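Supplementary Methods. Inverse-folding protocol.

Structures were first reduced to a discrete structure-token string of length 407. This string, shown here, constituted the complete conditioning input.
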């Protein structure tokens, strides 16, 4: 297959040229490495893209393997790979992603499209007059449609929402947007109401995938929790409550995915028959299968990690600030070390049944100023508020979304 008369690859500066065939000026923005932008280069391209070949990247494929299916020999694909590298390194192609090779009526390759991820695509095209190859990384322009899911809790939020036709990914995203306010192990009740709106993404009229959750509401024990997606001006969490406060807080409400809470927070003593001892249990136990990953509920520094002779078995303690620390006991395996800094949600170990334990579970303690407190009842300050510059737009947006998630 013929690649082109010239392999000069213009990546530093796209020079304005006059395309005689279309009688107008072509696009002339420079291509910025690592700063993808939407660039319209179709003005310079031939319209006679006659055939289209779609190739899915398979295991152990490299670009030359994929290109060979479109008729490029090894020398041609290597030269094209080298020319594209400053814009996108094709050594990073992923299994399952798609290449589209478009050719004209003479069988000459005129365009290559590669979907880098769900948000961006690489477009490599040959100019009509000069026949030079040009490449840009564009944001994928989806047609966005909204889908609403609502129902009442029957068993679990996950199963209830699945039964309503929700995508698994968006159910998790909805729950995560509220997990700073709701402990989905302890708080949910049969009959709780929920409603959320999320994106469905289409291209050429065909459904491609589910997108982000735009807004959600959960009514638990007559208390309403809401979250709203907003792409704030500054970096940070993109879900906010109705007052414009980030829903992200100092601590997650739950340290792992679990089946149920086996032993709630108590302030008295508890007799453990298996070991013939009575202990105070100022903690929360999360029963879960052995090997379930344990998350640190907050960012901090590991102040101890190892075996405890006090009945905790494998235990990790994390200091979060001058006020709070947390302790995670009975682990099967610890994967952090003393002195290590951990982030909120980071996996620090795995559920086990070491020490004074009658079965696989995680024993979680929260210590505030040296005193154990119930993590489920601890009131945390609101998250960072939305930027003042975004507040008016945010308020206008949530007035519309509040209507859509009204329970």
């Amino acid at each position: 297959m013929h690649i082109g008369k010239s392999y000069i690859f213009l990546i530093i500066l796209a020079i304005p040229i006059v395309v005689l065939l279309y009688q107008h000026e072509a696009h002339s923005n420079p291509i910025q490495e690592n700063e993808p932008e939407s660039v319209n280069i179709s003005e310079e391209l031939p319209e006679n893209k006659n055939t289209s070949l779609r190739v899915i990247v398979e295991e152990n494929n490299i670009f030359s393997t994929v290109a060979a299916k479109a008729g490029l020999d090894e020398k041609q694909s290597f030269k094209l790979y080298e020319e594209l590298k400053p814009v996108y390194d094709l050594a990073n192609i992923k299994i399952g992603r798609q290449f589209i090779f478009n050719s004209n009526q003479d069988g000459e390759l005129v365009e290559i499209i590669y979907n880098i991820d769900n948000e961006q695509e690489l477009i490599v095209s040959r100019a009509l007059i000069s026949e030079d190859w040009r490449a840009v990384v564009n944001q994928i322009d989806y047609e966005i449609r909204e889908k609403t899911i609502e129902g009442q809790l029957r068993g679990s939020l996950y199963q209830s929402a699945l039964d309503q036709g929700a995508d698994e990914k968006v159910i998790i995203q909805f729950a995560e947007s509220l997990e700073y306010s709701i402990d989905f192990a302890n708080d949910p009740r049969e009959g709780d109401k929920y409603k959320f709106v999320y994106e469905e993404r289409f291209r050429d009229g065909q459904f491609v995938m589910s997108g982000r959750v735009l807004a959600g509401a959960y009514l638990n024990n007559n208390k309403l929790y809401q979250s709203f997606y907003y792409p704030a001006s500054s970096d940070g969490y993109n879900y906010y409550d109705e007052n414009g406060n980030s829903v992200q807080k100092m601590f997650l409400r739950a340290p792992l995915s679990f089946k149920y809470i086996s032993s709630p927070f108590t302030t008295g003593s508890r007799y453990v028959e298996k070991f013939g001892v009575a202990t105070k249990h100022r903690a929360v136990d999360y029963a879960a299968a052995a090997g379930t990953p344990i998350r640190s509920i907050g960012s901090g520094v590991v102040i101890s990690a190892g075996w405890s002779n006090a009945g905790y078995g494998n235990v990790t303690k994390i200091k979060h600030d001058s006020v709070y620390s947390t302790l995670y006991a009975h682990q099967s395996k610890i994967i952090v070390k003393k002195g290590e800094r951990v982030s909120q949600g980071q996996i620090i170990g795995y559920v086990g049944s070491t020490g004074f334990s009658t079965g696989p579970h995680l024993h979680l303690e929260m210590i505030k100023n040296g005193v154990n407190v119930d993590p489920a009842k601890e009131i945390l300050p609101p998250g960072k508020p939305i930027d003042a510059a975004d507040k008016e737009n945010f308020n206008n947006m949530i007035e519309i979304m509040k209507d859509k998630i009204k329970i």
